[in-house]
Every structure is written in structure tokens, then in C-alpha cells.
Predict the 3D structure of the following.
Amino acid sequence: MVRIWNLHKSYGRTEVLKGIDLTVHRGEVVTVIGPSGSGKSTLLSCINLLEPFDSGEITVDGEPVGWLTSGAARIRMPEAQLNRLRQRIGIVFQQFNLFPHLTVLQNVIEAPIQVKAMAREQAVAVAREQLARVGLRAKENAYPS
């Protein structure tokens, strides 16, 4: 499902990802652990190119992420193609970055409506189902604070 080969990422002179290789099969659960500053968030952000990487390859379900290769050339993937891929990749940030002026339900339906053009009624139904699944249905009208 996710394959990473020889992934490198630096911030200036600081090399954060040093040749990471990882394969995650469909249905497999993988935990990335390590001390603060070890590159966990950077690795996850590279998987959907929220953070561009310096070299290496990432594929999600067989589709390259971020860069296409043509012979020896490395060409950045067109934004439209990258955005279609990002719709299938989920990430939960350490800082949830919820909209403080929206309720839990409103925060949950925002992406399906804006990114996937889902009808509001369908987004609400799916959101309520997912909130119930994680035991938060009673909080749908609460605010993040």
C-alpha cells in the first residue's frame, strides 16, 4: 500500500531522513516511534508531499507521490494529480488544527464537502457514523475548546 525507498530529507545542513526504506501492506498497522525531532512527522508529511523530500521514492497503492521520473530526470507531479492522490491519503496532525469557531461536526464535514464535493447531507451522515465509531457522537455540537 505504501512503499518508501531510500528517502532523504534535509533542512539546510541538518539531514532529518537518512535513506528511509519502509513497506506497509494493505490492512497492516504500523507505528512510527522515536524521540522528538527524529523525523516522524517529517516522514508522514512526505508521504503526501505536504513536505517535499530531497531524494528517494514514495508510492501509495502503486502510484508515485510527488515526483515522476523520466529517464534520469525527476519532474514534480502536476498539482491536480497530486491533489487527487492526497484525497486518498489521511493524516492526523499532532496539533489538530481544528477551526475553533466550528463545532466538532462542522470540522469533520469540512474536508469531504470542500475537497471531495460531497453533498452536505451525505457528509453529515458519514461524519455522525464515524464520530459514533470512535465514541464521540455525543460531542458533535461541542466546540474544540
Q: What stands out?
A: Helices lie at 40-47, 79-86, 104-114, 120-133. The two ends are 36 Å apart (CA to CA).
